[in-house]
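__Record contents__

***
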Amino acid sequence: MPKKLWKVASSSIHARGLFATCDIEPDAKVIQYLGEKISKKQSQRRALEWEEKARKKGEGLVYIFELNKKWDLDGQVGENPARYINHSCDGNCEAVNDDDEIWIVARKAIAKGEELSYDYGYNMEHFLDHPCKCGSKKCVGYIVREDQRKKVKKLLKRKKKSSKKK
């Protein structure tokens, strides 16, 4: 059995997180993201239900990954410690779809004790609903995928200017 590369522990980003139990090499498969395989229709219904509950309780939102055009993976169902990996605007891991299996893979060398994180890749459509507490130098204060962060910065700047004028 391969050595377990992670453990669940308290996180400064969001309650709990996954942390490296040893040094991890770049490109290493760290943990598989597990869950229930569900249809796109089920996925959309669950995501909307959980988002509503999460807003009220201040919890993590949705743990669903796209597998392919027909299926998604609901990581909130079953034993899935990978769901504790927090977002970071400068993550040390990435989520990779390897033949309809989701793997969390190290993007760079990770030191023992370091928190595992990856960019959740959210669209900016509802960015105000997803505040970010990662604390990285690349952080714009919201969980938004990297290629849309400049747009979010511009929108926030405009919003700040217009509120000062009032």
Remarks:
- The chain has a mean pLDDT of 90.
